[in-house]
Design a protein that fits this description.
The complex is a heterodimer of chains A (about 140) and B (about 190). Chain A is built from 6 helices and 1 strand; from the N terminus they run E-H-H-H-H-H-H. Chain A has about 140 residues and is mainly α. Chain B is mainly α and about 190 residues long. In chain B, helix 5 packs parallel to helix 8. The relative contact order of chain B is 0.14. The chains are: A mainly alpha (about 140), B mainly alpha (about 190). Chains A and B meet through strand 1, helix 1 and helix 2 of A and helix 3, helix 4, strand 1, helix 6 and helix 7 of B.
């Protein structure tokens, strides 16, 4: 007496050698092309691991680079120009004051170089004035 | 009763990690029942071997899609089942969908016994195989999954992509025929 399972398996036992060969070839292929499958939730961990394993052989170089970086940071901090004490607490003048001061400086400089500069005549716009002025200026320019 | 597949711890996680040895254990465990299942559906030796090989390769490629390791066996048979159906379609054979005469009462009566409880005498063996062969393909498929691996009905439904009620009906009719055979020769 046999169970139905035993009967079915016995009936196909003759195929075992071919099944063994088939299994062996599939397993061999798997071993040759074995790529560790990525776990869906551990993808970034696997990436980190790969980075770490790539960087690990360069430990000394990374330590040296770190030391140089720290030294550069310290030197940079020390060489920063200090703000003069006289300027601390003073507020910058308003832009119109700076402009007025510049005009005054320019006027004084002109006075020193050429003597007193007459104030510019009041400009009254006249019709055709620019055309006449051009005519007067041109011969002077030629001389 | 637990299915045969559930009784044994299988190295599915090791296979997932890429262990060729684990794959060898898994394939060795299932190669003969899987071949028997496929052969009894397609009745061609070389085609059956091709389907088993394709199933193994597909399993190795897609193991990431398996959510529960303990269902590895059912998943493997499911892939093989789909490949059998593809072959039928490629050969222009229609897959019979309504192969049972009617729905039985779905109270579990009639298929409560485990496959190992049905014993076949030596003189009944050829009759039994003839009976299996004469069953409509999808009834045969359900009976084979029940006999070979003692899969639970829900798992057979998943493997064969059929509703649970249909699976119950198919198994009911297949086992009814089997019981008649055993009673005839008792």
């Amino acid at each position: 007496m046999k169970t139905a399972r035993e009967l079915l398996l016995e009936r196909h036992q003759g195929a075992e050698p071919r099944l063994n060969a088939l299994r062996q070839s599939v397993v061999d292929d798997l071993a040759r092309t074995a790529v560790p499958p990525r776990h869906p939730s551990g993808g970034w961990l696997a990436g980190m691991g790969a980075w770490m394993s790539a960087l690990r052989p360069l430990q000394r170089q990374w330590v040296a680079l770190g030391a140089v970086w720290i030294l550069a940071a310290v030197l940079n901090h020390e060489s920063e120009p200090a703000i003069p004490a006289a300027l601390v607490g003073r507020t910058l003048p308003a832009p119109h004051q700076i402009l007025a001061s510049l005009r005054e400086n320019r006027r004084q400089l002109s006075e020193l170089l050429r003597g007193p500069v007459p104030p510019p005549p009041p400009s009254v716009p006249q019709a055709g004035a620019s055309g006449r002025r051009q005519k007067e200026i041109i011969p002077v320019a030629l001389v | 009763m637990a299915s045969l597949a559930e009784c044994e711890p299988l190295p599915v996680s090791q296979a997932r990690a890429g262990s060729a040895e684990a794959w060898d254990i898994l394939f060795r465990r299932y190669q003969l029942p899987l071949y028997a299942y496929v052969f009894e559906l397609v009745h061609h030796e070389q085609t059956s071997l091709d389907i088993v090989q394709e199933t193994f390769i597909s399993t190795a490629r897609n193991l990431g899609g398996l959510r529960e390791d303990r269902k590895f066996g059912g998943w493997l048979f499911g892939i093989a089942h789909q490949k059998c159906i593809q072959r039928w379609r490629r050969q222009g054979r229609e897959v019979p969908l309504d192969d049972e005469p009617g729905e039985p009462a779905l109270d579990g009566h009639g298929f409560a016994e485990a496959p190992d409880e049905v014993l076949i005498r030596e003189e009944q063996e050829s009759e039994f195989m003839k009976l299996v062969y004469q069953l409509p393909p999808l009834q045969r498929s359900v009976l084979l999954l029940h006999i070979l691996e003692d899969f639970p009905l829900e798992e057979i439904a998943t493997i064969t992509s059929a509703p649970l009620g249909t699976v119950k009906s198919r198994l009911f009719h297949a086992k009814k025929a089997l019981r008649q055979l055993v009673a005839q020769n008792a």
